[in-house]
Design brief:
about 325 residues, two-stranded antiparallel ribbon, globular, nine-stranded mixed sheet, about 15% strand, alpha/beta
Length: about 325
């Protein structure tokens, strides 16, 4: 059995050039940047902790002035480097990122065309730039992936987006449910299933099939919770296995978490565990392990819901003892 390698997520910054209605970083001009020096200190600790994959998140990572050198540093340290971006700046930066060794790029696309995606993201030109950047990156040897946030506003567009992404040569696709501070209501759940079930049941030889669970759940129980209570799919009980393989770092607040969905943004209790002790970076500290152990046991019955790939990843590990790489 292949030994699993852990995933390290690093929020490089909170600044962003998009105005997405569902995101707390919309048009943020925050000045924090995770530095090259921070990453140089982190990398040997990550290798010692069994990390094989590093993903940069934001905000918008491509707004970081040192993002190419950060990718190069991770590649030189033997990591598979990945990043998630809104894609607006990707066509301009794809060649340098590929040269630096970027292994995977993830672009957020939520509509079947520019006419809708750019409205949802409130950012003219974002759909076309993102799609062009994905094609350019793929031609340069970078694995292209798309993440899509799905809700009542856009689920009917998913069959069109599936065709667009297939024709563009995208290799991975995640559909995850929209999360807001209120209940998400679908007038007709049966219509959601009628539109979206064929997306998941498509022949992977002819159409790009989404990773992980359905965004509305795989089982009747998951779908009932989603449509009746707005509870998105999560790792199956009794245990969450994502926390065994993930370290998520929020550099601005100096915290680390055992899942990318867990960081708490406000209040006195920031959750997670300190990234630094005595001024130095330490991973897998006793405080971090206590945090991870708590959510391994309690996550499936108390979390607000996983990304669909995270939920599927945990289920695969539970069933098979291992999950394929690049699925989270």
């Amino acid at each position: 059995m292949t030994e699993r390698q852990r995933y390290l997520f690093v929020r490089l910054l909170e600044a962003c050039n998009a105005d997405c209605f569902m995101c707390e970083f919309a048009l943020s001009r925050d000045t924090f940047r995770f530095s090259l020096e921070d990453f140089a200190e982190l990398l040997p600790k990550a290798r010692a902790a069994g990390v094989g994959y590093v993903r940069f998140t934001g905000g918008e990572p491509l707004m970081h002035q040192d993002v190419v050198e950060l990718v190069r540093a991770g590649t030189d340290a033997g990591m598979k480097m990945s990043m998630i971006t809104n894609g607006m700046m990707l066509p301009k930066k794809a060649p340098r990122l590929a040269d630096a060794g970027l292994a995977q790029v993830i672009v957020s696309l939520d509509g079947g065309s520019a006419a809708t995606h750019d409205v949802y993201r409130r950012s003219p030109g974002m759909f076309d730039n993102g799609l062009r950047g994905l094609r350019d990156a793929a031609a340069l040897g970078v694995l292209p992936r798309v993440n899509t946030v799905v809700g009542p506003h856009n689920y009917t567009e998913m069959p069109d987006l599936q065709k667009v992404l297939t024709e563009a040569g995208v290799k991975q696709w995640e559909l995850s449910a929209l999360k807001l501070e209120r209940s998400i209501t679908y007038p007709d759940p049966d219509h959601v299933r009628a539109v979206c079930d064929p997306i998941y049941d498509a022949d992977p030889g002819s159409l790009l099939v989404p990773l992980g669970k359905r965004f509305y759940g795989d089982t009747p129980e998951e779908q009932e919770r989603y449509f009746a209570e707005s509870l998105t799919p999560r790792a199956s009980e009794p245990l969450c296995h994502v926390v065994d393989d993930v370290i998520y770092i929020d550099g601005k607040y100096g915290r680390m978490y055992a899942c990318s969905c867990l960081p708490h943004r406000e209040g006195e209790d920031l959750g997670g565990a300190p990234l630094r002790e005595g001024g130095a970076i330490h991973l897998d500290t006793p405080v971090f392990r206590t945090h991870a152990d708590f959510f391994r046991e309690r996550g499936p019955d108390m979390c607000g819901g996983c990304s669909t790939t995270a939920a599927g990843y945990s289920d695969d590990v539970a069933r098979l003892g291992v999950a394929a790489p690049w699925q989270y």
